[in-house]
Amino acid sequence: MYDKFERKINYLRVSVTDRCNLRCSYCMPPGGIKLLPQREILSFAEITEVVRVAVSKGVDKVRITGGEPLVRRDIVKLVGMIGRIEGINDLSMTTNGVLLEQFAADLSAAGLMRVNVSLDTVDPVKFSEITNGGDLDAVLRGIKAAVSAGLTPVKLNCVVKESKEDPDPVAVDRFAGENGLEVRFIRLMDLESGEFSVVEGGEGGDCIQCNRLRLTASGMINPCLFSDLQFSVRELGAETAIREAIANKPQCGSLNSQNKFYNIGG
Asked: What is the pTM of this model?
């Protein structure tokens, strides 16, 4: 699949929930969020059908996101359903790692190939402050479990406010080097103001090279993270929604007032 700017679209990011077990200061608003009613959340069968159609059109890379995907009930079952779709060469997940120790082995057995774990600091006090009470030790155990389960390369997503030379990113980079992990430094972004930049150590934020579509937990195909454009798989059907998203994919991101990071998966 190619868009009108001759970019090959072969990557689908799938948000399976808008719920999360952390409350990171840069993601969740101080007053909390209004969660989607359960009836609006795509079922496993609906998600799998969208992925199946996307793969039939040329997608070979799928990433499961949230919210926090591991809080979705029976997430291992969904991974298995997606993992059985022929044509996927890269099936991964972005997680905050809190529940990863519990699920790593089963996820690997179900067909998940690798994980990205959000980690902005290795200081337990700062981690608790950023996440509003999160347990850094649980995340570190989850990373270790992921490595043991073969969900490699494990990549760390480190959100940077100013520079990757700041103390926390430097410490995360050192931790990664000591443990055979990779790091992606992600400059703090703002959907509503359109503030974004290229991910250091990754491919995100590079509009010229963008090969992505996004499926929200409520069934919207978004052609661009920084755009209000979205197409409903329930109203249009998966094939038409995907086709329209690709046909209308903008050359470059601008802003997104329809979604937040907690429901579109970043």
From this structure: 0.95
